Amino acid sequence: MKKFLLFCLFLSLGIKAFSQESQPVSLDEAIRDSAQYLAGTMASGSRVLVLNVSAPTGELSNYIIEELSAGILNYRTLTVVDRKGLEPFREMGFSMSGELSSETALRIARMLNAQSVISGSVSAMGNYYRLQVQAMAVETAAIQGTQTSNVIIDKTLSAMLAGQSHASAMETPQGTSGGNNAKSSSSGGKFALGVQAGPQFSFGGDIINIGEGNYSSKGNIGFYASLYGAFAFTSVFSLQTGLGLSLNNGYQNTYHNKGYGYYYDSYTEVGKFSVLDIPILAAFTFRPAKNLFIRPSFGLLISIPLTDLEMTAQLPDFEQTTHDTFTFDSFPIFGINFGLGLGYRIGPGNIVFDIRALVNYPLVTWANDWWTIRNCIPLLLGYEFRF
After folding, report:
1. 20 versus 225: which is more confidently predicted?
2. Is residue 15 predicted with pLDDT exceeding 50?
3. Contact assessment for residue 218 and residue 252, using Cβ atoms and an 8 Å cutoff
4. Structurally, what CATH architecture does the domain formed by 17-185 represent?
5. Long-range contact pairs involving 43-46 (C-beta distance under 8 Å, separation at least 24)
6. Cβ neighbours of residue 233 under 8 Å, at least 6 residues apart?
7. How distant is the alpha carbon of residue 11 from its chain centre?
8. CA 277, 225, 332 angle in degrees (round to 5)?
């Protein structure tokens, strides 16, 4: 366990170092990241006011405020205060696209019965822009979280910098970075599509009731690949399903009798088979640090055998090797699936390391005293896109 924790630590540090070298993201991706971060950081049920964004143009400020409010609202963990209540303050001369002091922001939020106030800024950084979004507690003026993103100058951002209206920017043609992202940002990144692969360590084997003797079992090392999709109901809870290809499942069993009259003294058998898995998982995402998340999951496992159980037995007493094939008793096979994921935000998605446990029982029965079970642990590394 200690080695595994150290591995996860080194992996997260390596991912973080790599991410620092990654290219800036689009404006819509930056807004989506900020909405996800705030929804996952702030206390569930809080009333939040997206107050102002200091930006070069009013169009850019309004666009970020509207998209950020929609993104936070879609996660359904926070209550977003209606911005119609800000009209009296505009009439008093307050600009929501310029700088506001912390005292003024807190006073406005307090008058609108908000528990937290969210503000932001956009500033030029050479060949890209930097978007910073910050949440502050109204009662204590404590900073609750800050998200900073580097933003490329795509068509959406260019339109806003030129003073183009929100509606015109949303008409950017499909296939450009502005057209698709402008639409997807309001979805809050609720959908994910991921692919993973890695080694699989099987601990399945036979449960044998044949009398006296010494019996031992160990698993095979195989390969596992997974394609999955997920839908986030909130910033914490999501449902995930997909397809998993499990190759070289099986076991290696060794039996030594104690001289009670059996016709052999020992034998060794090796069983192998392949399976297509359909997991249905409840996943819970927790964010201990910016861009870093931990995701435990558990649920039902539906498995469809792709091959029969191929068993090779070596009988040294007879200098003989036998080959047998067994058909699985049921179709499909049900089991359980649980695991722990560690991820880090890079670009439009997450790089994710998963350790999983898959259990099916029984798979094959023979003579009422022999069951083949499947226990395997895949270690998977992959990438998931959010949209």
Report:
1. 225
2. no
3. yes
4. 3-Layer(aba) Sandwich (3.40)
5. 44/77, 44/78, 44/234, 44/236, 45/77, 45/78, 45/79, 46/78, 46/79, 46/115, 46/116
6. 76, 239
7. 16
8. 10
Question: Helix (H) and strand (E) counts for the chain?
Answer: 8, 18
Residue 80 tokens, joined: 């977003």
Residue of 13, 38, 343, 364 lying closest to 192 (CA atoms): 343
Domain boundaries, the chain: 17-185, 191-386
State the Cα–Cα distance between residues 371 and 207, nearest whole angstrom: 5
- Closest to 136 measured CA to CA, from 121, 120, 149, 148: 120
pLDDT at residue number 378? 95
CB atoms within 10 A of CB 26: 24
- Least confident interval from 20-29, 57-66, 276-285, 324-333: 20-29
Q: In this model, does residue 218 exceed pLDDT 60?
A: yes
Q: Is the pTM of this model over 0.85?
A: no
191-386: same fold as 17-185?
no
Residues of the chain above pLDDT 70, percent:
72
Structure tokens at 275: 């399976």
pLDDT score of 164 = 58
Radius of gyration of the chain (CA): 28
Q: What is the sign, positive or negative, of the torsion defined by CA atoms of 267, 273, 279, 284?
A: positive
Neighbours of 27 (CB within 10 A): 32
Helix axes 177-185, 58-74, angle to 10 degrees: 50
Average pLDDT, the chain: 78
Residues near 202 by Cβ (< 8 Å), separated by ≥ 6? 219, 220, 221, 222, 248, 249, 250, 251, 374, 375, 376
Q: Please say if the pLDDT value at position 239 is more than 90.
A: yes
CATH number for the domain running over 191-386: 2.40.160.20
CB distance 331 to 306 below 8 Å: no
CB 24 within 8 A of CB 150: yes
